[in-house]
């Protein structure tokens, strides 16, 4: 008998393999969607940090063929995607709102972006914070008023600043720690609901 103890969340990885998803992260988004009702048929979704593609697959299924999903990552997708998904290999720090169609181009913005871990928790937390702020900034530029946002961040000293940046752009902000996140992980997800009108102007005044 193996001495390796299975972590409670390991069954999510096994389930992902059985169900044809490249990563267990699918079930994090599924839980968030179940709790806050993110998706509807026909929506336009922007997925930042999309590789290997689990969140993109889930969003594409939820919005259906009448919707569209634009997926952005430095790396290419590892899965086959339906025709209403466009996957682009781009850097979010050079990406502009015009590259994505301008203000009002999306109903939902997702970000599962994370830095390459360095072994320094403080450094990794700050790297996650920078990516999170960039995701919120992009969301403020491209969401329709009333739109929704989900972003991953590593818990650290900058968490309250991240929440404040999200509150500046959304009427409601929630923190979610999905069951599929490993118990030892310090990732959480901030959910912004009901994007405020004129969020681009708000973000530029910060």
Give your account of this protein's structure:
The chain has helices at 10-19, 26-36, 54-63, 121-142, 159-167, 199-204, and strands at 44-48, 68-73, 85-89, 106-111, 143-154, 170-176, 187-195. The model is unreliable at 1-5 and 199-206 (pLDDT under 50). The chain contains six helices and seven strands; from the N terminus they run ααβαβββαβαββα. The protein is 33% helix and 24% strand. With 206 residues, the chain is of the alpha/beta class. It has a single domain (10-204), classed as Vaccinia Virus protein VP39 (Rossmann fold, 3-Layer(aba) Sandwich), CATH 3.40.50.150. The termini are far apart. Strands 3-2-1-4-5-7-6 form a seven-stranded mixed sheet, sandwiched between helices.
Key terms:
alpha/beta; Rossmann fold; 7-stranded mixed β-sheet; 33% helix; globular
The CATH superfamily appears as: Vaccinia Virus protein VP39
Counting helices, strands and paired strands, the structural category is alpha/beta
Percent strand: 15-25%
- According to DSSP, the number of beta strands is 7
Radius of gyration: 17 Å
Strand arrangement within the widest β-sheet reads 3-2-1-4-5-7-6
The CATH class label is: Alpha Beta
Which stretches are poorly predicted, pLDDT < 50 over at least 5 residues? Answer: 1-5, 199-206
Order of helices and strands: HHEHEEEHEHEEH
How are the SSEs ordered, and which strands pair?
Layout: H1 10-19, H2 26-36, E1 44-48, H3 54-63, E2 68-73, E3 85-89, E4 106-111, H4 121-142, E5 143-154, H5 159-167, E6 170-176, E7 187-195, H6 199-204
Parallel strand pairs: 1-2, 1-4, 2-3, 4-5
Antiparallel strand pairs: 5-7, 6-7
